[in-house]
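A note from the maintainers: we've had questions about how concatenated examples are separated. There is no special marker in the raw files; a new sequence line simply starts the next protein. For clarity in this README we add a label.
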Amino acid sequence: MVLGQIRSAAASLFGTGTANNNNNNNNNNSGAVQTQNNGERTAQNASSGGGGMFSFLGVGGSAASKNSRSVKSLSTTEENEKFFGFENFGNTCYVNSVVQALYATKEFRGRLLAHKEQEAPTEESLLTCLAELFQQITNQRRKTGTISPKKFMSRVRADNELFRSYMHQDAHEFLNFLMNNLCETLETEHRKMRTGDEPEPQTHWRSFVQEIFQGCLTSETKCLQCERVTRRDEPFLDLSLDIEPNASLSACLRKFGQAEVLRDSEKFRCEYCGGGTYQEARRQLRFASAPKVLALHLKRFKYIESLGQYRKLCHRVPFPNTLRIPAEMMASGQEKDGQSGAGGSLPPLYRLYAVVVHLGSGPNHGHYVCLTKSGMGDTATATTTSAATASEGTGSVPSDAAETSSPPVPMSVDGVDSPSDSQAMSPTPDVECDAASDAAWVLFDDDLVEVMPTESLSRFYGATTEGPLTAQGGVGTSRGGGGGAPPKPLVKAEPNTEHGYLLFYARC
């Protein structure tokens, strides 16, 4: 499907076209990404047979009618929601995608806009530019269209030289930079507001960014000589998870918190053993407090020492609609969500509402898009819904092991400890934590805004293998054709190159 047909499909689905794009001639310096009509587009997508990531739209017919019903649902349940794409200023898809995910975080959006109205005008910063961009979207009369984030992008480049070039950049690096910058700006404003006569607050002040995104890990280190435990709190705004082939998301979380033995050059300096000698120790990370919004970064770019460069990991990692933090990762005596289970209160439960996807085969080129769930990102709504459904009973959910056998259903629950848990399955209130389980997913590809069928979400999980063996020149076997034709050599098909990279979960 050519880009013009995609735009026509988008216009017919939303009942309004995107605004004219005046930035159609952006240069693309990555060398591996083809720029078309003010947006980075991957030059090839072998995993979908040339259809690219837009193949789920089809050309009219049933696919279009299915999307039309989704848009009708959006117009009746989310009258005040706006879905606006962003212009691309030359490989700025990493910025556009992260900002779309943050805009979909309703509490963050609301607190940012309220801060803009309440605070006195200050000098320009990323905080003020982002607030103006959000306000520009919310003030639009139309439901969808295109907005130019030129002022915000200029501020990004002014504040960090890493993002001044037109080269492909990492979305996770930008997310870290943006969140830390917002926190620092808010803390500076808070210090300026305090007078010298005010007593120091008994509790540490936190910005609204920290109140929403910040959690706390406890690093527990047990000396294997004296068996005393040392604890240290480590706040975080997002978690970076190592990934493995065909691993579930909760398995990645378990690996993140897995205990490790510190020995040899990594020995722990124990203050209780002989005045501070180095001893072998056992260290483990646990959640001391879980954030309202759990932002997860899947570490798909790995440095390969033998090659001397980074490579992209195309491993299949399903990201379920509902995720519960593994019970063994919660520090003893820490917060639970109040729901009852076989072992007492259950760990916090989250539901997925935004995904930043990386398209491409390597870390130095490619394209980012963002998927958001309409009507999601509101932790207050989720909490109310979860409390209302918690009394309906509990049940078992599919195990992590089940996720590796066949393509999973997107509306699933992750966070079960063993395969035996999948036996005698019954309905669970976990799925009901989703305030609108039938809400549509909306795809933001720079200035393009599309409604995506929910079942298409699984295409971004990754590949179970590096690619199936196929006959050269097409799908087939190594057997020869009729008339004694020689067999075609088997070759490996190219792996899927569209992968979930940043995941945003709202606490129920």
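[label: protein 2]
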Amino acid sequence: MDANRERELFGPIDDSVLNKQDTHRSRMISINRDHNETLLQLFQGSQNVFWTFKTTPGPDDFVLHPRVLDRLQVMGFYGPARCGSIRLDRHLITALVERWRPETHTFHFPIGETTITLQDVAILWGLSIEGEPIICREPHRTKTEWRQYCLQWLGFQPQESEMRSKTAILLSALSDRLKHRPDIDMNTPQDVVDQYARGCALILLGGLMMPNSSRCSVSLLYLQFLENVTKAGEYSWGSAVLAVLYRELCTTSQAEKTTIAGALSLLQIWAWSRINVIQPLKVRDMIVAGTLLGADNRDLGLPPYGVRWIHYNDHTRSVSNTIRVYRDIFDRLSPEQFIWEPYDMTLPDIATLGPRCLTENWMSECPLISVGIVEIHYPNRVLRQFGMIQGIPNVVHSTHASLHDIDRRGKEGYDWVSKHAHWITYWRDRSPFTPAMPINGGVTLTDDYMQWYYRITRRLISPDQYTAEVGGFQPLRTSTRDVLVIIYLNIHLICFYDNMNSKMCITVHLFIFPFRSNGSHVLKLVEIRLQLTIENHWWVCLIL
């Protein structure tokens, strides 16, 4: 397929926004059949999160002492500690990455742009948004000095074999050390409790919140932010987690990449929370959802909203582990299948989060900083997620793209505070984006948005045709014989069964979004209502 034909069928027609399409993995899927089945390898060390809050813990399950939980809450890690990890779906994560755009830091679906925002990080994991950014001057230390540093702040000096590199410790070694230390009790000195809590925080950072491509280690640079347990809770951990996740999504969206790290559990929970057609069917709760008590029986509060997705699932009646199905669902995603505002802000697990999480700065266009990484947060591109009418967003500043080239590799002892001084000031001076038009009366978009969007987006990911010899699920085929461009086609059935009259009412929505006809762009919606009678057979043959 030549490039012009590909742009007509898949997009973008106008590449002024998505200017990296030639190297994006979505292009490889459309032109290279072998790339269709390529799944990403997921890097996550969450198996080293050794404690549990299961509703029915087993004899070998480890439960954290209330004094340790208390210190994790002070440091700002109570939410991730309560949520823990989930079983990741490689097919879902891969399908999401195929729709992630590094130019805009958003997922491009047929319904418009969406993304995981600071609001999602705060609500799903209860992480602080307000506070100082996670950035530092990297210290000059030998490996021996780093091991002695661990002795001071973690309570043990790791062996040479327990170090991944000069500045990183193996997560397995860290979890083993903590599990085999003397039990914490009410008589344990406070500095020992704090050392234990710092170790748990490092496991969360390296195994769940900000895992890197090493998969098995965590950087000891984070330990300097945990030295003062009380001050640790004053940092913006939520923005750092989102910065790393954005960087991983941007890097992995390129065609040659095969691995991804970052907060993938958070990403998967975000997708489940918003895309209703992929939500797993809950069988029963996996972990305790109520409040826990800390030191001196202090109420530590409810776990964050994300806990409601940590349960045993029935995968026989929900989508999972099928890349072709996910691609087809996303290619045909309709407005009612995406939940723009999934959070009820009056629920206790949200309303009690506190001012560091519940902030107007969710809506700030601002830098997200994690040591050497800086990525930009663009809430103005996803205003419907904040209950606002979406219009054509501002053009992304050209200097923002160059941030992808800056990372920590080969920069030992680097002064990141000086390097990113501009972005640190930008973060501290940020203010919420304040659009003038909240959603009212069902109008969610300006009149010109969809016409603009369907010219600049990558509309389809799945190839136009699948050959007959390919086994398994076959996505529905679109026809391009009669029109130059069919951008989106979806049939949605709503069925109501009337036991009294033995009738089924079916509403069919057929969407054909803008296609080119004599130089004009047309948006059509056809609604057909059918009244069908069902007598002895539970099947219906519908021909359009």
